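Need residues for this backbone.
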């Protein structure tokens, strides 16, 4: 078979559950709405699943063109309301300062309760600014399905590692393991879009969190994906951040 897109995973709210899509428009800043919302602590710093693993088990669902939000909580409860925004404030994401608007509604209280710490849901003003490495033009991330199979073999587990652990935008099938490492600096076609990966993306503690239930695997365990990755490919990580662009005759659509 020819190499093809295996999955498309976006995170409408950073740190919360991944959303699978069949088709997206890929622009210079990534996929519209990806990482548009995030959680901040009282100091205005972004909080992620590395700090609060439970968050990955919360599934956000947007409706009415993004004007209504339902959070599906781990215990089965739903927290839903229409979205309204407060006045903009400064927040920081990995040392980058940007403007965001607090989301008025019941969600911050609900998320603070399961995180056991005060959190505030905000919407980032500029679409695309919430994407990791946005300052370097990293609009897309890539990971091959065969790399996950190699991790499973190194970890001694049955079946592939769940790709949601790595929170990568695109999965690519029918290429050899770690092929994505060789794509750095080269144009790669994803559906009708073209990306040029400038470098690798590190993944560590977040890979230890089970996407549906959020328990961690001990970092001392050989079953920990990050440990397995180091064993199967020392000093390299099988993922790449890509700068997405589309020319006059290139459709920016990518589809599974």
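Answer:
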């Amino acid at each position: 078979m020819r190499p093809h897109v295996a999955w498309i995973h976006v995170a409408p709210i950073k740190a919360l559950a991944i959303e699978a899509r069949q088709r997206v428009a890929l622009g210079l800043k990534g996929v519209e709405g990806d990482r548009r919302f995030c959680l901040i602590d009282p100091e205005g710093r972004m909080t992620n699943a590395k700090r609060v693993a439970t968050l990955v088990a919360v599934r956000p669902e947007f409706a009415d063109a993004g004007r209504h939000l339902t959070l599906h909580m781990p215990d089965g409860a739903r927290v839903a309301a229409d979205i309204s925004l407060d006045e903009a404030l400064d927040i920081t994401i990995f040392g980058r300062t940007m403007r965001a608007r607090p989301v008025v509604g019941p969600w911050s209280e609900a998320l603070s309760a399961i995180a056991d710490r005060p959190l505030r849901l905000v919407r980032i003003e500029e679409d695309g600014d919430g994407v990791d490495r946005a300052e370097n033009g990293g609009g897309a991330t890539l990971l091959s399905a065969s790399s996950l199979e190699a991790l499973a073999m190194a970890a001694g587990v049955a079946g592939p590692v769940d790709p949601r652990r790595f929170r990568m935008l695109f999965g690519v099938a029918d290429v050899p393991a770690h092929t994505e490492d060789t794509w750095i600096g080269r144009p790669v076609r994803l559906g009708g879009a073209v990306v040029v990966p400038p470098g690798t993306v590190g993944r560590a503690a977040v890979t230890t969190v089970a996407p549906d239930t959020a328990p961690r695997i001990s970092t001392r365990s050989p079953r920990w994906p990050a440990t397995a990755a180091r064993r199967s490919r020392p000093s390299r990580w099988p993922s790449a951040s890509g700068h997405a662009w589309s020319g006059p005759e290139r459709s920016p659509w990518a589809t599974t």
